[in-house]
Design a protein that fits this description.
Blueprint: H1 2-8, H2 16-28, H3 32-66, H4 71-82, H5 86-90
Helix pairs in contact: 3-4
Length: 93
């Protein structure tokens, strides 16, 4: 396990499993189809994360509105919690 973690952070190791892993990585690097698929999955994951954050913000705003929290307080809390500008936060009201 230590050898693998060393490999992950970029340290050279003589562990046989890590060497096999490095060989597999080197074989995969030039594979354009694999790289394209990886990038597509990475982009899809990022979109899903953004959708999840947006749903979380909408849910937070809805709950705070239902509790009768003033709009200015909701804006301030949403900006703080989700690191949004005032303009970005206003989109969720």
């Amino acid at each position: 396990m230590k050898a693998f973690l060393d490999y992950v952070v970029g340290k050279v190791t003589n562990d046989s499993f890590v060497q096999e892993l490095e060989e597999a990585v080197e074989k995969a690097k030039p594979n354009r189809e694999w790289r394209h698929e990886y990038m597509t999955l990475l982009m899809r994951d990022q979109i899903n994360v953004e959708k999840g954050i947006e749903q979380g913000i909408k849910g937070t705003v809805s709950i705070l509105k239902n509790l009768g929290i003033p709009q200015q307080t909701i804006l301030a809390k949403v900006q703080e919690q989700y690191h949004l500008s005032l303009e970005e936060a206003k989109k969720y009201l």
